[in-house]
Write a structure and sequence with these properties.
The complex is a heterodimer of chains A (257) and B (246). Chain A contains 14 helices and no strands. Chain A is mostly helical and 257 residues long. Chain A has one domain. Chain B is of the alpha/beta class and 246 residues long. Chain B has two domains: 169 residues, Rossmann fold, CATH 3.40.50; 67 residues, no CATH class. The N and C termini of chain B lie far apart (37 Å). The chains are: A mainly alpha (257), B alpha/beta (246).
């Protein structure tokens, strides 16, 4: 087996790829994956065309479509990730997995990439919305690409939060609730009505802006409008790395409990 | 093959394992005996690298489980207690996953899987999901993943617990067949296991070894029998472990 980074007979790429393959396939071993994908697509369609009045706006852009993504991820990503570690611990397979010749980090990255890819499939299946916009007018495909990139990165950050939450308990429900709470908090601190309300209470604008800049929402806003800023990409990568590192620490300390 | 050096494990103020040392050579089958809660599974989990010891270490084929866990684990086959497995997978997919993670080349994997399926007697159920299997078959499936890479050291935690007499017989036969090429540890509280397959034994109670010396707790099964004039293992087991419970 060829590998770019083989060390002492162990290849981290193979380990990550193997865990990724098993996890990704496991999503489709149960009806949950299909329910998730259908729910994601129905919700995306309903919110874009039914709530955001895509047709009535008479503009060939996907701003109303991307507007709802953070709120869809708020519910659906915790549902997709809640079993990631909780199931391993409940079934005892964590002992099997972590006594095989792989590191905890490799297992974690494999699981994360599988969950992120799964959500990425849901996102990719929204392509009919792009086709609709292209059929009705001449949308800016650069802006659409930016929106999708931003949405995918946002999904990655939410996935990393979900993986971290799943590592905290052997109960999937607790994992779901914690993931939802963290994601909601990181969204709401950048939500304009909340930011304005906090500013009106007399909180110094510097503090309000600093807190808002930590929001998943604020970094997505520019991207969904078609602007790529490396600071936004860096922020999402940072959230992913931080949450996965936290998940590693938690899993390592609680794996036998 | 396997050298355990003064392994200790504390959970807060509770000392689960109070320092245990032994070694197992190729061809030996060590029965790691003790009552429930004696520290057997904790010791197995430390040797396999699942939980870190508070102090001490284990060397598997020369690889230190603390400083080179991946190297040590690649020489190790492990059947955890209750034989966990991914139940939504078929037997074949599960063993393919185990072979991939053990680093086998893609081209070699089908042959390896076929070989271990034959060895563990899983041919009839190879395309069934693990969820649909009886406990005996699930045990054998987990056993198959532990031996797919022909490990130098095989560790089994309660391998026959909950199996019917026929299933126990099959598992013991498999252990006997492999014992010539491996160092094997069987953690158990079932004394008939010792007579059936073990060449050596370590008895542990309350986190402490009750046999051998501080440097090497391992003794032969013949020497274990000499610990009581009756030579009965259940009497010896009670003598060594019940004192601690009083």
């Amino acid at each position: 087996m060829s590998c770019c980074c083989k060390k002492n007979g162990h290849c981290p790429c193979t380990a990550v790829r193997t865990v990724f393959g098993r996890e990704f396939k496991s999503y489709f071993d149960s009806p949950v994956a299909y329910v998730f994908l259908v729910a994601f697509l129905v919700l995306a369609g309903f919110l874009t065309f039914g709530v955001a009045f895509f047709y009535e706006r008479r503009q060939a852009d996907l701003t109303p479509f991307f507007f709802w993504h953070p709120w869809m991820y708020l519910l659906l990503v915790p549902a997709a990730t809640m079993g990631s570690w909780a199931e391993e611990r409940r079934n005892g397979t964590i002992e099997l997995l972590l006594t095989m010749p792989i590191t905890l980090g490799e297992a974690l990255v494999g699981k994360f990439l599988a969950a992120w890819s799964f959500i990425g499939i849901g996102l990719a299946l929204t392509f009919p919305v792009v086709c609709t916009a292209a059929w009705l007018g001449s949308p800016d495909f650069g802006a659409i690409f930016c929106g999708y990139l931003g949405s995918f990165l946002l999904a990655g950050a939410a996935t990393a939060i979900g993986i971290f939450a799943s590592s905290l308990s052997r109960s999937q429900v607790i994992g779901f609730v914690i993931s939802l709470a963290i994601t909601f908090l990181l969204l709401i601190i950048g939500f304009d009505p909340v930011v304005n309300a906090v500013a009106n209470w007399g909180v110094p604008s510097g503090i309000v802006n600093t807190i808002a800049s930590c929001s998943l929402l604020q970094h997505f806003d520019a991207m969904r409008r078609g602007m790529i800023d490396f600071a936004d990409i860096g922020y999402y990568v940072g959230v992913m790395v931080f949450m996965l590192a936290a998940a590693q620490v938690v899993t390592d300390s609680r794996k036998a409990s | 093959m396997l050298k355990v050096e003064n392994l200790k494990k504390s959970f807060g103020t509770f000392e689960a394992v109070k320092g245990i040392s032994f070694s197992v050579a190729k061809g030996e089958v060590l029965g790691f005996l003790g009552p429930n809660g004696a520290g057997k599974s904790t010791t197995m989990r430390m040797i396999t690298g699942f939980i870190p010891p508070t102090s001490g270490t284990a060397l598997i084929c020369g690889h230190d489980i603390i400083t080179d866990p991946v190297g040590a684990k690649s020489c190790l086959g492990y059947l955890p207690e209750a034989a966990p497995s991914y139940r939504a997978m078929t037997v074949e997919d599960f063993l393919t996953f185990a072979a991939k993670i053990r680093g086998f080349c893609k081209a070699d994997i089908p042959a390896k899987v076929d070989e271990v399926i034959a060895k563990a007697g899983l041919a009839k159920v190879r395309r069934q999901t693990i969820d649909t299997l009886s406990k005996g078959y699930r045990q054998r499936t987990c056993f198959a993943q532990a031996i797919i890479h022909k490990p130098s050291v095989l560790i089994m935690d309660e391998p026959t617990d909950g199996l019917d007499p026929n299933q126990k017989f099959v598992v013991r036969q498999m252990i006997k067949e492999m014992s010539a090429d491996m160092a094997i540890i069987i953690s158990t509280h079932i004394l008939e296991e010792v007579d059936a397959v073990c060449t050596h034994a370590v008895v542990i109670a309350d986190g402490e070894a009750k046999t051998g010396t501080r440097e090497n707790a391992k003794i032969t099964v013949a020497d274990l029998r000499k610990l009581d004039p009756s030579g009965k293992l259940d009497t010896i087991f009670r003598k060594l472990t019940m004192k601690e419970e009083k």
